[in-house]
Design goal:
Oligomer: single chain
Strand order of the largest sheet: 3-2-1-4-5-6
Structural class: alpha/beta
Shape: globular
Strand content: 5-15%
Distance between the termini: 8 Å
Helix content: 40-55%
Largest sheet: 6 strands, parallel
């Protein structure tokens, strides 16, 4: 099987999102061939290069989403490089797209809050632009042109437009046009021919948004099925990030509407959607994903690096609390420090070790400095006697330092691991603590409750008193810590390993290809049709069987996968030598 792996800001680059799990997936499915199509987010990311790729990666094609704006040159290129018919066609398609983005959607009946008529309007305009891009060799100049800005302005002033968008001014429209061009840049790429995504059996997008857009186009042009995996919902990430950007309220409203409709289109056209947890699944359903398409697949993490600590009888320092992660405001270390002040009143010997570096950006660095200052204020250096050196019960450390050479060493040092976040997706640090057999105290955010499944204590976020009480309860009860840690390790080994993740996608790949084969004529080296080049199963119509009673569509009677009972099943394909 030939897989087109679609990424944004991650694999195969040395740094970025989803890099590790993509690498583990590709290496774990050595029987398949992978073509990687990567969108980079910064010049720095491209400069740092790629990780070492396994032999099953046959080709890598990249494109930047970060190039500087060249508005004047782009407008000139649009005027000189497009004929009258092409300019008129662009104005029509982009005008329809802008109208769909700006429409308020009042009275919508779709699951995503978008009516079917509005979704079809957005879809038709999007694919019309894609076809025009194929004919003209790209749309970068057109999407930044005065024609595009005027189309946006007209859509904002039209009856039924979003109330917030009506206040958009020319600078707002110019900013929106530039950001839309970046989001729609995959339309201008040459990835969709017979030497690219048109030749793969399946497109696997590792996130929504721009990463999934090449998959939509491959489906539109060549009928290639699309699998979308989201461990962090792209639309949710956009909502959180939009508030941090220096954009006006009308510009944010327009971009939010665009990304919402793009997400709805991705979910509507995807063959299968694999959220990483129930929290992400609820977001996807709210944004229009059909429940029958959803298959929850937990992220796979390397358990072997924590095996020594997890199997060790040493439970760690019984008086030490541990926090591990990237230091940023969403982690709410301020509440943790105030909670630790309450813990020290009950357990004077308690210590708190904060292990991690600040996230990228000046805001995170300032937040770390604020946390250090607060810790120094709340906990002045203490000494056992008049001639002893003072010591602070709160320490800030980084992985690689002499005290914590490896990540596993950090978890080995404490008996209770704490998570104090106010915003969280899939809590990786909690899973790592579970692999190490550590008891945990966490705030009820994101997928925390789903991950720990009763093997740790959960408290409300932004509640230092509740957090302190839970930590004190575990510090005082060694037997309870041991029982919870053992149960947590067993749960993590069952649900969150690389092996379970790889096996899940192996089955999903076969499921999709057996039901949605690409109707592609087999040709020999001379370009002549090959008799019986495709097996008979490739021409059998497949269908998605939905379990009676509204159950998960992936299982049939008796718990067996529904696709395993049909003639186009993976077992039949294996018998045919596919």
């Amino acid at each position: 099987m030939r897989i087109g792996l679609l990424t944004e800001g991650g694999y195969p680059y040395v740094n970025g999102e989803a890099r590790l799990w993509c690498d583990r997936l590709v290496r774990g499915l050595g029987q398949h061939e992978f073509d990687v199509y990567a969108l980079s987010r910064s010049e720095r990311q491209e400069t740092q290069g790629w990780i070492e790729l396994p032999p099953q990666v046959k080709q890598v094609r990249t494109a930047p989403l970060w190039t500087a704006e060249r508005c004047a040159d782009d407008r000139a290129a649009f005027g000189a490089g497009y004929g009258r018919r092409a300019r008129r066609r662009f104005a029509e398609c982009f005008g329809e797209l802008a109208a769909a983005v700006c429409e308020s959607g009042a009275g919508a009946t779709g699951a995503s809050g978008v009516s079917d008529a509005l979704a079809d309007r957005f879809s038709s305009a999007l694919y019309g632009l894609a076809e025009l891009a194929g004919d003209q060799g790209g749309l970068i100049g057109a999407l930044r042109s005065e024609t595009a800005v005027r189309a946006l302005e007209g859509a904002c002033r039209a009856p039924g437009a979003l109330r917030t968008a009506r206040a958009a001014r020319v600078p707002d429209l110019l900013a929106v046009a530039g950001l839309l061009e970046r989001a729609l840049r995959p339309l201008s790429l040459d990835w969709y021919g017979d030497d690219g995504l048109g030749a793969v059996d399946l497109c696997h997008a590792t996130s929504g948004g721009p990463a999934a857009l090449p998959g939509l186009l491959a489906q539109h042009f060549s009928g290639v099925p699309l699998l979308v995996t989201e461990y962090g919902v792209q639309l949710r990430a956009h909502y959180l990030a939009t508030g941090d950007e220096a954009l006006s309220t009308p510009a944010r409203a327009l971009l939010t509407s665009f990304h919402g409709k793009l997400a709805a289109e991705v979910y509507r056209k995807a063959t299968v959607i694999t959220p990483g947890n129930t929290h992400a699944r609820r977001w996807q359903e709210r944004c229009g994903a059909e429940r029958s398409k959803l298959r929850t697949v937990y992220p796979g993490m390397e358990a072997s690096r924590f095996a020594e600590v997890g199997e060790r009888e040493d439970p760690g320092d019984p008086d030490t609390l541990l926090w591990v992660g990237r230091i940023e405001p969403a982690k709410d270390l301020i509440s943790l420090l105030h909670a630790f002040a309450e813990i020290r009143k009950e357990e004077p010997k308690a210590r708190l070790r904060i292990v991690g570096a600040a996230a990228e950006g000046p805001e995170a660095a300032a937040y770390l400095a604020h946390c250090r200052a607060l810790a120094a204020q709340l906990f002045p250096d203490e000494a056992d006697g008049a001639h002893a050196v003072g010591d602070n019960p709160v320490s800030f450390e980084e992985i690689g330092a002499p005290e914590v050479p490896e990540l596993a060493d950090a978890y080995a040092a404490g008996s209770v691991v704490v998570l104090s976040s106010v915003v969280e997706g899939f809590p990786i640090s909690l899973v790592e603590a579970m692999f190490c057999g550590r008891a945990t105290v966490s705030t009820d955010v994101g997928a925390v409750v789903e991950v720990i499944g009763g093997t740790g204590l959960v408290v409300p976020p932004r509640n230092p008193r509740a957090l302190a009480e839970a930590c004190v309860a575990l510090l005082r009860d060694a037997g309870r810590r041991e029982r919870l840690g053992a149960a947590a390790r067993a749960r993590a080994l069952e649900l969150f390993t690389v092996e379970q993740n790889t096996e899940a996608f192996r089955g999903i790949y076969l499921e999709i290809v057996s039901h949605c084969p690409v109707r592609r004529e087999a040709l020999d080296d001379a370009g002549e049709p090959v008799p019986f080049g495709n097996p008979a199963e490739a021409y059998m119509p497949g269908r998605w069987a939905v379990a009676a009673g509204g159950g998960d569509a992936s299982t049939g009677p008796g718990g067996a996968p529904s696709w395993a009972q049909e003639d186009g099943s993976p077992e039949r394909l294996k018998e045919a030598g596919v």
